[in-house]
Write a structure and sequence with these properties.
Blueprint (H helix, E strand, L loop, with lengths): L12 E14 L2 H5 L8 E9 L19 E7 L8 E4 L4 E7 L4 E8 L8 E6 L16 H7 L2 E12 L3 H8 L24 H4 L8 H46 L1
Antiparallel strand pairs: 1-2, 1-8, 2-5, 3-4, 3-6, 6-7
Length: 256
């Protein structure tokens, strides 16, 4: 490896779009009877994939192979599962299981050594049931849930590499990501930012698109403004209290 390859390209950022989340389907009574745990009601798959979907694919995302920059994805399941820490060293970066309950899954993405990057940690709440308009999970009878189709819970994210090493930058640029479609052709993906999206949580195969990126950016900007406004409000209150404290100190000094 040439020494110049380990030089960082300062002032440059490059990103790769990914999605992470899960798909869940209801098991039939016959399927449940074949399981070691007959109380399990769903089969689910949690995954990390490229954001774009392959043409005519029934899978959410996954058009691109991420292994050119992802070395390993570790999924930490609930402790009740056998070997709850699952290390996946090659694509597809996913784990399939059966179960009856929802829980939080820790997802650790480790990058290839050429990147010089630290692992990325994500969290995903496994979703087995659709949502109601109020944002609470709706648990329909199993026979009804089977007819409704799979439940999708996916989150879009962008892995950003700042000041990448030259050799890693060359690797990334030689594998451009598949562009997202410009318009919605399938139901919008269901994830934590859209708990009221019943359309997306039941049936169909969701697909991420460019317009969603814009919508997500607008939501983030709105949230940022709210945080700043809240900070300003509490800062003003703090200044007011500090002034009151100074007045009380002066009064005490005069009394003493």
């Amino acid at each position: 490896m040439a020494s110049g390859d380990r030089v960082r390209v300062r002032g440059l950022s490059i990103f790769r779009p990914i999605i992470y989340g899960n798909t869940a389907t209801v098991l039939t009574q016959k399927e449940r009877e074949t399981l070691p745990s007959p109380d399990h009601t769903h089969r689910w798959t949690v995954a990390v994939r490229s954001a774009a979907s392959a043409p005519d694919s029934e899978q959410v995302g996954g058009a691109d192979d991420l292994s050119y920059f992802v070395k390993r994805v570790t999924f930490k399941l609930h402790d009740t599962y056998t070997n709850p820490t699952r290390n996946i060293d090659k694509p597809p970066f996913e784990v399939s299981e059966t179960g009856w309950g929802e829980f939080e899954i820790q997802i650790r993405i480790a990058f290839i050594s050429e990147s010089g990057e630290k692992p990325m940690l994500l969290y995903h709440h496994l979703k087995l049931h659709p949502w109601t308009a109020s944002g609470d999970p709706e648990i329909p009878p199993l026979d009804v849930a089977i007819k409704q189709g799979p439940v999708h819970s996916w989150q879009y994210d962008e892995i950003v590499f700042n000041d990448p090493y030259q050799n890693f930058l060359n690797l990334l640029t030689s594998h451009p990501p598949t562009p997202l479609p410009k318009i919605k052709k399938r139901p919008v993906p269901f994830h934590l930012a859209h708990p009221a999206s019943l359309e997306a949580s039941k049936g169909g195969v969701p697909e991420f698109n460019v317009s969603m990126e814009k919508e997500e950016a607008e939501r983030m900007e709105e949230a940022r403004k709210k945080v700043i406004a809240e900070q300003d409000k509490w800062r003003a209150k703090l200044i007011e209290k500090e002034k009151e404290l100074e007045k009380m100190k002066k009064v005490l000094e005069q009394l003493s």
